[in-house]
Each structure stands twice: as structure tokens, then as C-alpha cells.
Q: What sequence folds into this?
């Protein structure tokens, strides 16, 4: 079994497993367990112990609402789950975000295990202890840092996912290549499908290394948000009709173009962004008429600094810096010239 160590408020492992039930039972022992999984996934969670409770959730981002959060929080209380219990989230990034936040806040904090079943969850959302839900004003505006007991990854879960979901996860993989590990970009250039297991391993390593050095998000961890300032705004503007990774793909193009203007990023690297993202059938354009609303949505981004909107920029592959206090006219021009259609 391959493992990656993560250091946070406590240390834990990302474990690459072949059999889910045995790995979970080994971790949990005889503690009370409540499993959370989306309705569409409940038939795929396998033969878990009969005494474990299972609560189903809505699919996708719908589960990250305040209403769902309060509803399942009350269900935990009604079930009488004690502080010694364990919550298990089996699903995509939205599921592990929600279950981690439930674990952080129920009885002032109990243990949980993340079992990501999407590519985006495996390389990003389930790693690092950032948990949360969405508010009407924006994405992930309520949350907590609360690391799991372990993250269990079995890439066999990906075999039943539609290509669209796999492609969306590749946006986070490609991001890891640009911010830290150029080998990822090489593997994506050659054959992203054939190299998928190695790509997951490398991208998970990037996330683990960053959060181990910066758990509470000073600038080092902030590099993981490359492409996310505009990406989150597009995701919300689309009313979550775009997958997270699809919105981030567009955000990566914008961040690269902004980096060329403000940090001198080489045009060849900007073009490499487009080439790799389009190879994974990811969008690189969005509606021209959306700019005013997107700019308003970015104003509510939790990464906004005292100097105004803050972007993570790239001066070269693996070399990052903040871009702050950017004039709206410049942002609008870059958007309309490179993103808008």
C-alpha cells in the first residue's frame, strides 16, 4: 500500500488502497460510525458493517447548503452519535467538504475519514483539512480547518464516472503541474489516461507537501488557489451547471494571462495552459456579457485582501507570487480579450 504523510494539527496518511471495507474497519475499530454518501452513489459503497449508520445526501454542490448541513447535523444528534464516534464521507469533493465540516462542528469536533470518489476529490478537496459549505453570497464562506483520520484513495471508483467528471478533475491535476511539479505537465502531454494513477499520486503529493508546511493558509498554501479567484465566481455564476474543475479551467487561463501582464510569464507557458486544458476537453471560454456579475462575485471571495482583489500569479512554472490591487479595467480587458466569447 502506497502512502503519503500529511502533517497538520495532527498527522495522517493518504492511503492508496485496493479494498475499501477492510481499510475502513482497520481505521475505525469498534467505534460508532455514520457514513455519508450522495443518493446516486449509495449502491456503490459496498458491504459495510451492518451496524454502521448510513445517511444519504443530495448530489453535487446541492449538499453543501446550510439547509442540508443543519438537517444532517440534527440527524446525527437524533442518532445519538457520541464524541468517540467517526464520520465517513464517501463521495466527491462536495461530500468530503460537508462531512469534514460536520465533524468539525458536531459536539465541537469528532473524528472523520475522507473517501474521495472523484478525481478532483482525490487530488485536491479531500486533502488538507479545509472543510465547509456554501452560502448565498459565495462558495465555501462557512467552514473550518479540521483534518481527517485518513484519506483513502481507490482509483477504481473512477471507472464508473463519466468522462466529463474525469476531465473536470484534470484541471486540478494540471494546476499542480504548473505550481509545483513539471513532471505532471509532461505526463499530461504524453498520455493523461494511461498515466492517470501516477498523476493522482503526484498531484496528491503536491497538495500534501503544501498543506504540511502551511496548514492555516498563509501564502504558501494560497498557491493552491491558482486559477480559483475567477474560477469560483464562474462556478457560482453558472449556478453550478459547470463542474468545479470546468470553472477552474477557465480561471487558470485567466490567471495565466494576468500573470503574463503583471509578472512577465512567458507566452509559451500561457499557451501551454490552453493546450493541456483543451486536450482534456475542458472549457477555456465563458460568456462576454458575464463580466460585471463575475467581478461582483469576486468581490465576495474569501481570499480578497485589504488592498482589494487578490490573485495567485505565476512568473514561471513553479514560481508564484500574489497579484494585488489590480485595476478593474485591466481585469476586464484581459477577460474580454482572452476568455469572453
A:
Amino acid at each position: 500500500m502506497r502512502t503519503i504523510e500529511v502533517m497538520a494539527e495532527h498527522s495522517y496518511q493518504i492511503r492508496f488502497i485496493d479494498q475499501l471495507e477492510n481499510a475502513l474497519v482497520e481505521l475505525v475499530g469498534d467505534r460508532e460510525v455514520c457514513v455519508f454518501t450522495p443518493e446516486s452513489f449509495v449502491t456503490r459503497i459496498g458491504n459495510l458493517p451492518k451496524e454502521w449508520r448510513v445517511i444519504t445526501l443530495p448530489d453535487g454542490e446541492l449538499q453543501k447548503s446550510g439547509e442540508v448541513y443543519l438537517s444532517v447535523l440534527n440527524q446525527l444528534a437524533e442518532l445519538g452519535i457520541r464524541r468517540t464516534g467517526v464520520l465517513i464521507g464517501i463521495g466527491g469533493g462536495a461530500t468530503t467538504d460537508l462531512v469534514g465540516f460536520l465533524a468539525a462542528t458536531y459536539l465541537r469536533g469528532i473524528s472523520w475519514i475522507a473517501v474521495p470518489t472523484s478525481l478532483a476529490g482525490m487530488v485536491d478537496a479531500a486533502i488538507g483539512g479545509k472543510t465547509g459549505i456554501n452560502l448565498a453570497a459565495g462558495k465555501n464562506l462557512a467552514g473550518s480547518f479540521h483534518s481527517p483520520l485518513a484519506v483513502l484513495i481507490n482509483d477504481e471508483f473512477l471507472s464508473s464516472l463519466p468522462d466529463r467528471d474525469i476531465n473536470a478533475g484534470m484541471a486540478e491535476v494540471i494546476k499542480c503541474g504548473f505550481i509545483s511539479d513539471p513532471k505532471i505537465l509532461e505526463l499530461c502531454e504524453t498520455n493523461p489516461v494511461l498515466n492517470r494513477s501516477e498523476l493522482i499520486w503526484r498531484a496528491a503529493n503536491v497538495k500534501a507537501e503544501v498543506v504540511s508546511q502551511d496548514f492555516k493558509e498563509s501564502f504558501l498554501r494560497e498557491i493552491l488557489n491558482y486559477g480559483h479567484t475567477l474560477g469560483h465566481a464562474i462556478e457560482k455564476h453558472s449556478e453550478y451547471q459547470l463542474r468545479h474543475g470546468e470553472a477552474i479551467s477557465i480561471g487558470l487561463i485567466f490567471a495565466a494571462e494576468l500573470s503574463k501582464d503583471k509578472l512577465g510569464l512567458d507566452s509559451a507557458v500561457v499557451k501551454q495552459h490552453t493546450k493541456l486544458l483543451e486536450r482534456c476537453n475542458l472549457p477555456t471560454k465563458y460568456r462576454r456579457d458575464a463580466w460585471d456579475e463575475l467581478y461582483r462575485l469576486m468581490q465576495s471571495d474569501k481570499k480578497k485582501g485589504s488592498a482589494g482583489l487578490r490573485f495567485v500569479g505565476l512568473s514561471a512554472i513553479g514560481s508564484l507570487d500574489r497579484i494585488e490591487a489590480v485595476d478593474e479595467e485591466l481585469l476586464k480587458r484581459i477577460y474580454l480579450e482572452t476568455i469572453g466569447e
The CA atoms of residues 201 and 267 lie 29 Å apart. Residues 165-339 form a domain with the Dehydroquinate synthase-like, alpha domain fold (CATH 1.20.1090.10).
